[in-house]
TrEMBL record:
Catalytic activity line of the entry: 3-methyl-2-oxobutanoate + acetyl-CoA + H2O = (2S)-2-isopropylmalate + CoA + H(+)
Major location (coarse): cytoplasm
InterPro entries to which the protein is assigned, alphabetical: 2-isopropylmalate_synth_dimer, AIPM/Hcit_synth_CS, Aldolase_TIM, IPM_Synthase, LeuA-like_post-cat, LeuA_allosteric_dom_sf, LeuA_N_DRE-TIM, PYR_CT
Role this protein plays: Catalyzes the condensation of the acetyl group of acetyl-CoA with 3-methyl-2-oxobutanoate (2-ketoisovalerate) to form 3-carboxy-3-hydroxy-4-methylpentanoate (2-isopropylmalate).
Residue ranges crossing the lipid bilayer per the database entry: none
Name listed for the protein in its UniProt record: 2-isopropylmalate synthase
Cofactor requirement: Mg(2+)
EC number annotated for this UniProt entry: 2.3.3.13
Residues covered by region (Regulatory domain): 439-551
Keywords: Acyltransferase, Amino-acid biosynthesis, Branched-chain amino acid biosynthesis, Cytoplasm, Leucine biosynthesis, Magnesium, Metal-binding, Transferase
Residue span(s) of domain Pyruvate carboxyltransferase: 31-305
One Pfam short name: HMGL-like
Amino acid sequence: MLRDPSTKYRPFPPIALPDRQWPSRTITHAPRWLSTDLRDGNQALIDPMDAEKKTRLFDLLCKVGLKEIEVGFPSAGATEFDFISGLVRDGRIPDDVTIQVLTQSRRDLIETSFASLKGAKTAIVHLYNAVSPAWRQIVFGMTREEVKAIAIAGAKVLRDEAAKQPDTDWFFEYSPETFSTAELDFSVEVCAAVMDVLCPTPDHPLILNLPATVECATPNIYADQIEWFGRNIPDRDSVVISLHTHNDRGTGVAAAELGMMAGADRVEGCLLGNGERTGNCDLVTLALNLYTQGVDPRLDLSDIDEVVNTVTYCTNLPVHPRTPYAGDLVFTAFSGSHQDAIKKGFVAQGQRNDGLWEVPYLPIDPADLGRSYEAVIRVNSQSGKGGVAWVIEQDKGLKLPKRLQADFSRHVQALADETSRELGAADIWGRFEATYLPRAGDRFVLRDYEETGTAGQRLFVGHVSVDGVDRSISGRGNGLISGVIDALGETGPTLDVVDYSEHAIGHGADAQAAAYVECRTADGRTVFGVGLDSDIATASVRAVLSAANRA
């Protein structure tokens, strides 16, 4: 890398728009969406999709609610042409979906594009040619007028070919390709010339797509370009301003959002951000960004795993585990403080009456996307007591008292350090059983018991195995637990009860009970016991014996 990059790279010039309005606007409704997964996304693959994969992805796009789908580049070859014409011929296009095809501004390519759509109920033909200085001077060696003439000539062919198929409701889209690095006045000039040929109206508008073909500036620059264009294009009510952002600088979604604030009506992109180089605008991220702001995206992403699995299969591209909303780890917390905050957030959420979502670290309810809460908190060596307690509660229904959470967390931490891997629910439950529940070799094992007496004067008589020998022990107290503690004094440790709690697990006749006891030994140590049983009284006896076994 250069010590002084300014000797090689120039900063992108700002747009002269001192009265820009977009920064004070908010997005209040979803844009018109266009998926270009089957065109821009497909042409970016090492191994382009075959007909089976294209069909599977097309069906997914329709299922999630996309109403405009760019299905290919029919003049690129027989595979593309046959797939597109097959969609039309086989009646696979839903009545509320419009397909779109892309073509360069050449007569033969445009004619082939129209031929692929023969018989379609409605369709969009998307014409483009590059207009920026680098393309004019380096790639084409053309003047402004020559480049504009290409666009005009292509528009005339669009008009004439559409007239030959009057049974199809035709719409047109024009892209001044490389818009984001072109002179704004020239982009408007070329688009206006195309409008003069196609004569759009408010009832039948022309789509003007303004691509950031290569993202070369910050998103605010792109928003300025969009607002400037919208102010200066003639007959604004007869055009639909469309965005097609790329992610070369990592801000494709942000550029689309600011472009919408700047007045754009439509967004093109791909599910999960596939596309040339660093990809297109990620439609999933953008749609769910809207959703988390209370705006209906008009896309159904309630089964995000189906979207991920289908796109992965069709494109043979992995989805990064940190991909917003869709990655395997985006609703997962390993950090102890994060886990504790999420756990408290879910508790508070359950107590709310207004239905509003407010859980720390989770900008969206995973359930809205078909994800389960069990996956939210996962445990490794960085995890804290809150995360461990959450897994136990979600998996087994045990609501551990805070000090027991801290005690058990030490045992889980030791296991994580020993194994040097993420711990699953089975690992955690196994360590919980080994630490607090009955196990081979326990000194005290409950066989049976009975309790008699009046309030404040209770007698506990237990049939208990002590050091492998069955025997009867008895004790008195003002309640069952104090009676058990007194009975243990005959053969076991001296314990003082510091805290006790209990709760039901589940509902109805099959509900279980859990009891937790915190005790202090004669030498000042703290021990915990846990009891599980279908009877809450028996669970409390088991909890005291659990503590005695660990004293």
